Amino acid sequence: MSLKKIAELAGTSVSTVSRVLNQPEHKCHDQTMRDRIWKIAADLQYTPNTMARNLRKGVDPQEIPFTVDVFLTRFHSIENDAFFMELFQIIKEELLTNGCLFGELLTSVDIWNLGKESTESKHIPYRSSSKVLAERPQNSQAFINIKRNTGLVILGKCPDHLIPLLRKRYPCVVGIDRNPTDYLYDEIFCDGAAATEQALEYLISLGHRNIAYIGDCNYESRYVGYYQTLLNHKLPLNYDNIYPTDQTKQEAYHMTEKILEKPKRPTAIFCANDTTALGVLEKLNQTKHSDYTPSVISIDDIEEAKHSTPMLTTISIPKREMGHLALTTLLDRWKGYHTENIRIELPCHLTKRESCDYNYQS
Q1: Are 302 and 277 in contact (CB under 8 A)?
Q2: Pick from 195, 239, 196, 193: which is nearest to 219 by CA?
Q3: How far is CA 239 from CA 217, 226, 264, in A?
Q4: How far apart are CA 234 and CA 214, in angstroms?
Q5: Are 206 and 219 contacting, i.e. CB atoms less than 8 angstroms apart?
């Protein structure tokens, strides 16, 4: 894919595209143009010509560029999770900047079970069962074909039973999540419990005492942060205020309907992610004729949160830094600069907007 094609699609000059893609330190006058160029380049899987750069550095020109697969653990499609979709875009930008290749986007659909085909049932991330069987070693109970010169970025909470297979298949693995593992692989994370504590502390400072939770409750740090903060303030943990979901907008919409049916409603709603909060706001906006206007707060700070009605108050997760550090860590391990599993924790920050207010009922 040529720079000329990207320039045509972006509506700018080839020289501008070249500076944006090949000079990381270059500051584009129009930030929207820079973002558009990166998005087009990533969508077209543009790969910079690194041959000249490698020759200057003394790198063998025959060496295959480092390739990175991305594994989305929670949903069947990247479009179903706005936070990880934005993070995925950042990772692709980082790959371009570092002269690396993007390999495959693996989702839960790509986790195949060989079932009776093997001595034991093994779960494998791949594109099709035919590929699984074609690459399966003849004399092995487990499917472990190492993808050399390829690393893996795990987006989200990875099932424990899958981790050993992934680590055998990929020489380098790094995870990005809000739920850290027990040093099972390199991780870049922002503590979901700490982010939740910030959110609830803010609601409590506004006078809220009756706070609902909408989100995942299965081994989820955000749920732990929710009930721990309530206990720290000696507030009752009311299980009627807990609404387990898979953190989609549709489920949040339906859970808000259930809240509206209750005679005693929470004065504030904490949502485990922005997508959930947007579903809550959508339903509340349809019932504006009622006198129920709870404060709504969440975690992530996705782009859509800035344009909701009302604009969403949220805990901002540093996505760009997470994407940058994930690839940096992956390359560092690939080059042999570290062997122990490391964990890098990044801070989160409260972003106040319009969806939270004082509780005048207290």
Answers
A1: no
A2: 193
A3: 12, 12, 13
A4: 21
A5: no
| pTM assigned to the model | 0.77
In whole angstroms, what is the distance from residue 110 CA to residue 234 CA?
A: 45
CB 344 within 8 A of CB 188: yes
Query: What is the C-alpha end-to-end distance of the chain, expressed in Å?
Result: 61
Calculate the alpha carbon distances from 296 to 199, 208, 225 in Å. Answer: 10, 11, 17
Write the pLDDT tens digit of every residue in 76-135. 778 888 999 999 999 998 998 888 988 888 886 666 553 334 444 445 554 455 655 555
Backbone angles phi, psi at 145, to 5 degrees: -100, 115
Distance CA 152, CA 110 (A): 14
CA dihedral sign, ordered 188, 191, 192, 198: negative
Give 306's DSSP letter. G
Task: Please report the beta strands in the chain, taking only residues with DSSP state E, as ranges in sequence order.
Answer: 67-72, 101-106, 111-113, 123-125, 150-155, 172-177, 186-189, 211-215, 242-244, 268-271, 295-300, 313-316, 343-345, 349-351
The string of pLDDT tens digits covering residues 221-233 is 999 999 999 999 9
